Amino acid sequence: MTSFLFGVAGFVLTMMGLGLVVILRRPAEVDHMMAAQLLGTGGVATLLLLASATETPPIADVALLLALFAAFAAVAFVRSASDQESDVSKATSDG
Question: Are 32 and 22 in contact (CB under 8 A)?
Fold first, then answer.
């Protein structure tokens, strides 16, 4: 069972790497945020698989922290994007 979990973790890492290559080739900021979310999600999945395979519970704690940081990054991006949008709408309504 341990080798299966390591194999699945390797598969998740491979798919995450391929997804990052595709996403980071795009120029939009939204795509870069999607790359950060992909890293967070894939990282959490990989760490949880490794924690189960090695029977090391602290790795699961690190995975939960990574999930929390990924959520904070998404909220910060949305707030930043909404602030920029409101600045643009103010500039166009003043002119």
Answer: no
Q: Inform me whether the pLDDT recorded for 84 exceeds 80.
A: no
Q: What is the largest CA-CA distance in the chain?
A: 66
Q: Which residues fall within 8 angstroms of residue 86, CB to CB, at 6 or more apart?
A: none
- pLDDT tens column, 37-51: 888 888 899 999 999
Contact 71, 37 (CB under 8 A): no
DSSP for residue 26: S
CA–CA distance, 94 with 54 (Å, rounded to integer): 61
